Each structure stands twice: as C-alpha cells, then as structure tokens.
Input
Amino acid sequence: MNQKTKNELISKAKEAREKAYVPYSGFPIGAAVLTTGGKIFTGSNIENAAYGLTNCAERTAIFKAISEGYKKFEAILIITDTDKPVTPCGSCRQVFTEFGDDIEVISTNYKGDELSYTSGELLPGAFDKDQMEGKGVNKNEI
Output
C-alpha cells in the first residue's frame, strides 16, 4: 500500500475514533477498512451496558462495508491514543479471516508507532468456510 493511501486510512480512522461510544471503558478506537476496489469504510467501537453487546471498531467498519456489498478487503487500520499500538481482539481476528488470510492489518497510535500483520498471521489455524465443506454450506455461494 502506498503512503498516500495509508495516510488516508489514518485520517479516516482518527475521524471515526472521535465518534466512538465508550461511556464505560473510556477507550475510543477508530478503524478504517480498505476494499480491494479502493473504497474506505470506517468504524468506531460502540459499547453497551451489557458488555457482550459491545462492538469493536474493526468489526463495525467491516460490517458497514459488507452491508454495502463489499466482501474483499486489502487492509484494515486501527488507531488508538496509547503509548503502543493495540492489536485486535480474537473476535475481530476471526472476522478478518472470514474474508481472507492475506488482509493487511495495521495497528497504529497517534505517535506514529505501527505494527503490521496479515489476518492469517494474527489467527493461524482459524476456523473458516473451508472447514464447513460438506456440512450443508456451498462455499462457492459465500
């Protein structure tokens, strides 16, 4: 990915972070996902008093993209205002691998520190649609 695209993802993720709903943790996170066609979708974390209903910024961005018909992703960038970049939770890692093990996952902070992985590196041996073959699911339709 070129630096101009990365800078745009950072800018969009920062904007999304400002919209986070985090009355319980006070820990806002912003995310920006880049489709293979170059479209960017953003998300912020959205908390709930029933913590199990909370949704991460990364999944919010991906779910927005999917709801608009996009299912192929090149990269996702996560930004926090922390001393070190924060890596995605296990649920987000599982969602990433649903759409491929080669998605670039970039974790960054406001200081410019950065960690970069592929979705497959973040969740090796992930349960995926290939394991569903022969179980009533036609993976060619997914």
